[in-house]
Amino acid sequence: MTTANPITKVLVANRGEIASRVIRALREMGLTSVAVHHSVETNARHVREADEAVELTGETPVAAHLDIEQIIAAARKSGAEAIHPGYGFVSENADFARAVEKAGLFFIGPAADTIALMGDKISSRNFARDHGVPVAPSVMPTDDLDSFAAEAAAIGFPLLIKASAGGGGKGMSIVRGPDELHEAARRASSEAQRYFGDGRVYAELYIERPRHIEVQVLGDGTGEVIHLFERECSIQRRFQKIIEEAPSSSLPKALAAEICDSAVQLAKAANYRNAGTVEFILAQDGRYFFLEMNTRLQVEHPVTEYITGIDLVRAQIDVAAGRGLPCTQDQITQSGHSIECRICAENADEDFRPETGRIAFLSVPDAPWIRFEHALDQGQKVTADFDPMLAKLVVHGDDREQAINRALAALSELAVLGVTTNIDYLSRVIATPEFRVGDLHTAFVNEHAEALKPDKLDPADMDRVLIAAALSFHEFRHLIFDVPELQATIGHWRN
After folding, report:
1. Same domain (yes/no): 194, 259
2. Which residues are catalytic?
């Protein structure tokens, strides 16, 4: 039997749209929220939405958000009993989780030892294999690069070199022959050391045109674990997801159930507490292999919330407060289909180059079946300080076809001016015949690169488009065509 913990105030150790998302859940639960921010974001939306705010200092905004001691001090200063890490920054840092608990605060996430176990790709793979979850053939790291290369080559090609402590596509490369192996391993190790402070890499059999399937799990830390079905995350660029959906498209029900059961089996073995995601690679022949476990809330959690009706952030807080899981496995049902598009400040037509600028105009579509998760303001600067993801456009439909049509409609109505985004590119992806029929895999973007290029627009047509856009902008029409207030009061008289 669990005992409720006294959580009335929560510090959100993050920023942007996920901070706003957590703050919204806290408000709905009647709990007090505390935001943290660097000086460059004193007036940011998530800061304004929170009940209280504490400024963090640092040479860069990212450095401030990675400063464990400052975050703990901010929680103590504000009187918060718990910390929600969101995702990114310190969300999967076992040292942070330990520091939170050592300070006598509640960490809204897994136990520190679980984060350490599952956060390391090598230890998590060994753990998964030892508990009966399928793992792709692989070679673990060694100080002897020649020996590592020889063992890796024995598996066969192609191979995927991956950073043990990595994520987000960093420290990762595909090797298609023995002549590439040494250099790829050296480069991956160097990149892993630079980004994660851990140069260990491993090699595993690379599955051609795989699907990326993940399962949302919730555990109470006492051995009870439930899954909230699977998500399809195969549409990626540079190993990073850009479109996710739930449930997975074209996945046989029996196979989906088997994958979900494997995720629960792994989480139970780890005595998992709070929300987590078990990720798998699915081969074209139906074989699936454990990829990794993310010991935090995922960016794509809204699609699961849409099809299950379960508020995952609320569930996280309830578990941390000792109130247990929101329901039993047999009480969870799926309803309809949901698609999420990650809106990023990047030029998709220039190899997804990150972009900067200032939000000159923001117009968000509004409908009962749309969620636009963001923390944007008109006039806000978009800098290179943070990840290029600006927002998430999430839609729900009665079935996948309706969800696709609604996603296309919502993307066509979404306007973010002042910085280049991938909005049009996402529309082109979803509109392809292959996406519509569910022929998805992680190489989709590269395989359809030519078809996803924008149509050439005649300069004269461009002028017409810009004029039409300007005329549809209320403030522009008012400035050009309306009679100034002073003259309007005089009536029809003119000087």
Report:
1. no
2. 296
